[in-house]
From TrEMBL:
Segments traversing the membrane: none
Residue numbers carrying 4-aspartylphosphate: 54
InterPro entries documented for this protein: Bact_response_regulator, CheY-like_superfamily, Sig_transdc_resp-reg_receiver
Annotated organism of origin: Acidithrix ferrooxidans
Gene Ontology terms: biological process: phosphorelay signal transduction system
Gene symbol of the encoding locus: cheY
Ranges of residues in domain Response regulatory: 2-119
Superkingdom in the source lineage: Bacteria
Protein name: Chemotaxis protein CheY
Gene3D superfamilies associated with the record: 3.40.50.2300
Keyword terms: Phosphoprotein, Two-component regulatory system
Length: 121
């Protein structure tokens, strides 16, 4: 499995990566991007099985990134890992094609349970 982590914070990308490894995804191949535009390039170059993206980023935010992927006909499994998790954001994420939204603060169990529930293995 190949997982793309998209977040403008290098520290947060490392935290998400560590949580994923501890949640049982240590055998996955990981790639990274700092915003949605870089994410689009990584999707083309790496063909990930799962994308985990922050919502708020410069250049192209996570929602714009997701919508661009879907408008291009790509149905790669996609979830948000973000600091905001209002009910409206959850609905907007799902309506736009995301499988889930994990709000910070999160735990290793949050990742394991959310990815299992979404059928991401």
């Amino acid at each position: 499995m190949k997982i793309l982590i998209v977040d403008d914070s290098k520290a947060m990308r490392m935290i998400v990566l560590r949580h994923l490894r501890q949640a049982g995804y240590g055998d996955a191949d990981f790639c990274e991007a700092a915003n949605g535009l870089e994410g689009l390039s990584q999707v083309k170059a790496e063909s990930p099985d799962l994308i985990l993206s922050d919502w708020n980023m410069p250049e192209m935010n996570g929602l714009e990134f997701l919508r661009k992927l879907r408008s291009d006909g790509l149905d790669t499994a996609f979830g948000f890992v973000t600091s905001e998790g209002t009910p409206d954001m959850h609905m907007l994420a799902r309506d736009s094609g995301a499988l889930f939204l994990i709000a910070k603060p999160f735990t290793v169990d949050t990742f394991r349970e959310t990815l299992d529930a979404a059928g991401v293995v």
